């Protein structure tokens, strides 16, 4: 279980580095296998260059080599991504997570050439990220498999298309040295039963111990007990995303005392009605930060 790390903010909107350190320590101590830094859940598009650099270094220092770190490094300008890979300080990171280009809506060959160029430039292994609900373009199984077979530096995909048939096609036909990772908490259990190796999780920010146990049980073939945990969180999976991500998980973390319930525009906190439902579940689960 990897965790897509949030960015805690203070009430005045500044990055709350103290809360970030506490969160990272909680995740490392409670079962997270790796962290994904500066991904979608981190509200990365709203962070300044200086904030992103400081977040990168704060996380590296706090983790201190105890678990691997994956760094979000993607965009819709291929050359800009390549320049970042060549010029940025990547020390402390084991790989990069690179999202499909958003807004441009490239063809499948355009996606292939984009990621091929990134893989050739990256000094670290590359994990692809397919999330058409955000980017406006779906990378097909055919394109994913083409990249997996021809680019040795591309080692996995975080699949968040929601298309189980597409994911199963990738799992069935992929090379042995390429992994499929769930990009959606709600389908992690069924995807592992098909052959996925885990998840880059949002709910893991708040429930690392519980959700990592579900993942490990499923990976070890104990589907009965894994399914029990999966079903326990079914309503929460929906609530955490109904008002957008990371609004739901930040509301949950706030209820648990981990951070302020603050997001940066254009994102806003979850609705009061959603907050009340999340609060009931947090009390029922009896979980604390």
Number of helices: 13
Largest sheet: 8 strands, parallel, barrel
State the helicity in percent bands: 40-55%
Domain module count: 1
Task: Report the span from N to C terminus.
Answer: 18 Å
CATH-defined topology: TIM Barrel
Shape: globular
What is the total tally of β strands?
Answer: 8
Order of helices and strands: EHEHEHEHEHHEHEHEHHHHH
Strand content: 5-15%
CATH architecture: Alpha-Beta Barrel
* Cross-sheet strand order for the largest sheet: 1-2-3-4-5-6-7-8
Fourth CATH level, the homologous superfamily: Aldolase class I
Radius of gyration: 18 Å
CATH class, anyone? Alpha Beta
**What is the mean predicted local confidence, pLDDT?**
97
Weakly predicted, low-confidence segments: none
Structural class: alpha/beta
Q: Secondary-structure map with pairings?
A:
Blueprint: E1 2-4, H1 17-29, E2 34-37, H2 49-63, E3 69-72, H3 78-87, E4 95-99, H4 108-121, E5 126-130, H5 132-135, H6 141-150, E6 154-159, H7 164-173, E7 179-182, H8 188-194, E8 198-201, H9 208-219, H10 223-232, H11 234-242, H12 247-255, H13 272-285
Parallel strand pairs: 1-2, 1-8, 2-3, 3-4, 4-5, 5-6, 6-7, 7-8
């Amino acid at each position: 279980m990897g965790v897509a790390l949030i960015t805690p903010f203070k009430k005045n909107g500044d990055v709350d580095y103290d809360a970030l350190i506490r969160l990272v320590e909680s995740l490392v101590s409670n079962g997270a296998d790796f962290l994904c830094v500066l991904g979608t859940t981190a509200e990365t598009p709203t962070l300044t260059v200086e904030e992103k650099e400081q977040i990168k270094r704060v996380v590296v220092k706090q983790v201190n080599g105890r678990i691997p770190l994956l760094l979000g490094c993607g965009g819709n300008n291929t050359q800009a991504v390549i320049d970042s890979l060549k010029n940025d300080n990547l020390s402390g990171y084991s790989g990069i997570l690179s999202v499909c280009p958003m807004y441009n809506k490239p063809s499948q060959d355009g996606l292939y050439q984009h990621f091929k160029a990134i893989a050739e430039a990256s000094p670290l292994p590359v994990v692809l990220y397919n999330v058409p609900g955000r980017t406006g373009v779906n990378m097909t199984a055919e394109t994913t498999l083409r990249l997996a077979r021809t680019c040795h530096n591309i080692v996995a995909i975080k699949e968040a298309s929601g298309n189980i048939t597409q994911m199963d096609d990738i799992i069935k036909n992929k090379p042995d040295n390429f992994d499929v990772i769930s990009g959606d908490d709600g389908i992690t259990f069924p995807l592992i039963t098909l052959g996925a190796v885990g998840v880059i999780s949002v709910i893991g920010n708040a429930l690392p111990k519980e959700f990592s146990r579900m993942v490990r049980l499923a990976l070890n073939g104990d589907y009965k007990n894994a399914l029990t945990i999966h079903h326990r969180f079914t309503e929460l999976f929906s609530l955490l995303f109904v008002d957008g991500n990371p609004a739901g998980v930040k509301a949950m973390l706030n209820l648990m005392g981990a951070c302020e319930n603050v997001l940066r525009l254009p994102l806003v906190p979850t609705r009061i009605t959603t907050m009340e439902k999340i609060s009931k579940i947090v009390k029922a689960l009896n979980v604390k930060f």
